[in-house]
Design brief:
Helix content is about 35%, strand content about 15%. The chain is α/β, with parallel strands linked by helices. β8 (about 170-175), α6 and β9 (about 200) form a beta-alpha-beta unit.
């Protein structure tokens, strides 16, 4: 099944983005402004080696992303890009086709307006106290716990699948794509090699450079989800700014690829509040956090060789939502080994839609 292309849009994309055979350019410069990201708070309750525990991993801090183009040899290493698959390369069951509904944008604009129209209700509800997502690793492959100040589940949020069916073993791989990076290509290649589906949270900044890769994600059966326009802390924004961050990236994704965005949302920097989660829910999204993560987000300070595999070996658990980043060289180097490990442990890899399925009797 071939993907419908919107010719005019693709031509404009090539003109605007300087499209090349490399797929997307890797730069963190956004109009000359460096982006600040907050490391997720992670608390270990099991003993770890010195190489596994670092101050940046157990404290909430701020990491400033470089505002210059990374031209290291690692970044520019030639990687064979997978272009649009022919029907011989990709089976019909693995390929998604763009949404044909011409009413989609009308529905999107109606959702946007409906949220804006509830401004007074959001102001009256309160719930503006800000939390930063915090989970605690558990020993013996027990699902991670949290230090929630309120139950995110009550606000259409999840950080793991707490209703895995008895006898099932599943892990949900999620990749945050805040910034354009060619490292998305080998990650997609490795997932395809293993026949594994994952969920990618993309920003508009990513799509402006890598819309071809986002389209490939959909074509190969992955989910492409919402990570805002500019990867900024939404808890400090006005309602109008929050609405723009949510809906502008969704609309841009559709215009660039012809696909609808999957309705799962990840809070930039892991910061959230009751009010913000209510807005996200009213926008039609589920908020997704994580129960397995490590410090892979700093491209200048990557985990030591073997760390990623060792981390998954120690802390994988049933129903885990694993947070990874698309621009991590450590993930590129070790993803194949991680997938092999989990496959040998009997795990399958699910998509986030399973988080919303009703619990069943005998769930773990």
């Amino acid at each position: 099944m071939k993907r419908r292309k919107i010719t005019a849009v693709l031509i404009m994309s090539m003109i605007m983005n300087g499209a090349s055979s490399a797929g997307c350019s890797d730069t963190r410069t956004i109009e000359g402004t460096a982006e600040n990201t907050r490391a997720p708070i992670i608390i270990n309750t099991s003993a770890t080696s010195a190489s596994e525990t670092s101050s940046s991993e157990t404290e909430s801090g701020t990491t400033t992303e470089s505002s210059v183009t990374d031209t290291s040899s690692e970044e520019t290493t030639s990687t064979e890009e997978t272009t649009e698959s022919s029907s011989e390369e990709t089976s019909e069951s693995e390929t998604q086709t763009p949404t044909a509904s011409k009413d989609y944008l009308t529905e999107l604009h109606a959702r946007r307006k409906a949220v804006l129209d509830k401004k007074t209700a959001y102001e009256q509800m309160g719930g503006t106290e800000v939390d930063t997502w915090c989970f605690k690793r558990m020993a013996d492959h027990v699902p991670s716990g949290t230090y929630e100040h309120f139950r995110i589940k009550d606000y259409h949020g999840a950080y793991l699948n707490d209703h895995v069916k008895e006898g099932d073993k599943v892990i949900y791989l999620t990749f945050d794509c805040g910034y354009a990076s060619k490292r998305s290509i080998p990650i997609l290649d490795t997932l395809k090699k293993h026949g594994v589906k994952a969920s990618f949270f993309v920003t508009k900044m990513y799509l402006e450079k890598c819309s071809d890769l986002a389209a490939r994600m959909k074509e190969e059966g992955h989910m492409v989800c919402n990570h805002t326009v500019s990867h900024t802390d939404l808890t400090s924004k006005t309602l109008e700014e929050v609405v723009a961050e949510i809906f502008d990236v969704e609309e841009f994704f559709y215009e660039k690829t012809g696909y609808e965005m999957d309705r799962y949302f990840r809070m930039p920097e892991g910061t959230y509040s009751k009010q913000l989660m209510t807005i996200v829910n009213d926008a039609g999204y589920m908020s997704v956090f994580w129960s397995l993560a490590y410090n892979d987000y700093d491209t200048k300070n990557q985990p030591a060789p073997g760390f990623v595999l060792d981390h998954f070996t120690k802390f994988h658990h049933n129903g885990a939502v694993a947070l990874m980043h698309n621009d991590s060289q450590s993930n590129v180097d070790e993803l194949d080994a991680v997938l092999t490990l989990l496959e040998n442990e009997g795990y399958r890899f699910g998509l986030l839609s399973e988080l919303e399925e009703a619990p069943t009797t005998g769930a773990s």
